[in-house]
């Protein structure tokens, strides 16, 4: 199959056997479609085949979704970095496990809070990134990266021990708001309300 220079979405399809057989088989087929065939592929398509009673689900994903995956991996690595920062701060300030916060060292407390706050928002960010990325993959990857940059500035400011300096990173929430918008748009498109 030849490829043109246009977008080439990745298509996953899964098939399940009918209830009479009480057997479920799951297969995943990954193929790239030619741009000329895009008109025949809907974003999410459920079809029932009468001849053998199987039901198929086809999900077409734009190749730009790879950027979304890269941002997701970067967010995980960023989390590890924040955890390492707390680990080394424990060594530097002599704060032993399992003590979560120090009674005397505000800078350590701020560093611990940076990591904890990131972990509190991490599931929300990933859901919005990966779901919204189905609707607008390239723009959601950019929005996710903006969110991570905001978290980095937030982390640097907060880790100084002065909580007011964390506010410089609030611009990252613009990225999160765009991810929320894209996820809501995805839901509305799947429900065929728009």
Automatic annotation (TrEMBL):
EC number of this enzyme: 4.4.1.20
Superkingdom of this protein's organism: Eukaryota
Example GO biological process: lipid metabolic process
SUPFAM superfamilies hit by this protein: MAPEG domain-like
Enzyme class: lyase
UniProt cross-references to Gene3D superfamilies, sorted A to Z: Membrane associated eicosanoid/glutathione metabolism-like domain
Subcellular location as annotated: Mitochondrion outer membrane
Protein family membership: Belongs to the MAPEG family.
Name the record gives this protein: Glutathione S-transferase 3, mitochondrial
Organism: Oedothorax gibbosus
Lineage: Eukaryota, Metazoa, Ecdysozoa, Arthropoda, Chelicerata
